[in-house]
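Retro notes, item 3 of 5
We never archived the inputs for the cytidine-5'-diphosphate complex last cycle. Fixing that now. Sequence and ligand:
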Amino acid sequence: MLIAVDGPLASGKGTIARHLSQWYHLPYLDTGLLYRACALGVLRKNGDPEDEETALKSARTVDQKALDDPELRSARIGAAASKVAAIPAVRQALMDYQQNFARIPGGAVLDGRDIGTVICPQADIKLWISAPADERAQRRFQELRARGENISYDEVLNQLKERDTRDAGRKEAPMLRAADAHLLNTGGLSIDAAFEAARRIVDATKADLS
Ligand code: CDP
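Structure as it came back at the time:
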C-alpha cells in the first residue's frame, strides 16, 4: 500500500505520515528532508540557494546519511529549502531517490508537497493535510522554540506566508492538492485525533480497494 501525504508547512502531515507508517508497518520518507539537506549543503558552502548550479551540485550529493542531521529542522534551512525546491533541475535530481523509495515492495508512506501529483500519482491513498495559517504558525513556533531557536511568532508567521506563496506559486511541481486526495483539516485537532481521522480514511479507502 502506497500512501501519499501532502500539505503546507506545519499542517501536521509529517506527524500523520510517521504515525501511519508505524501503524501499517510501512517505511516512511519525509521528502522535505531531501530539499532541506540540499539547502544545508549550499549554505555550508556559503552559496546562494537560488543559484541553480550550486543547488544542483548539492542536490546530487544528498543521500540517506545526510538526512539525519538535526540542523535540517531549523527555520533558516526551511526557508532555504523552499528556494532550492523552486529550481526544476534540483527537483529532477531528487526525483529518483523518492520514486525508488516508493517502489519498495509492500508499499511506503511519503510526505511532501507534490507526492500525490508528481512523485507518486499512482499512490493507492492520497491525503491532503491542511490547517489554518495562524495555528500552523503557532505549532511551528513552539517546535522551533523547543529546539532552542531564538525566533518570534511574527517571524515564523512571515516565513510561513512567504514559503506557502513560493511553494504554491512555483512553475515546476507546485504545492497542489491532487484531485483524488482526501482532505483532512487538522485545525483544532490533537495529534491523536488527527491520526485517528487519517487512519479512518486509510482504512475506508483500503476496504474500497480490495
Ligand atoms: O516541515 P515543513 O512543512 O516546514 O517543510 P518540509 O516538508 O521539510 O519542506 C521544506 C521545503 O521543501 C518546503 O517549503 C518545500 O519548498 C520543499 N518541498 C518540496 O518542494 N517538495 C516536497 N515534496 C517536499 C518539500
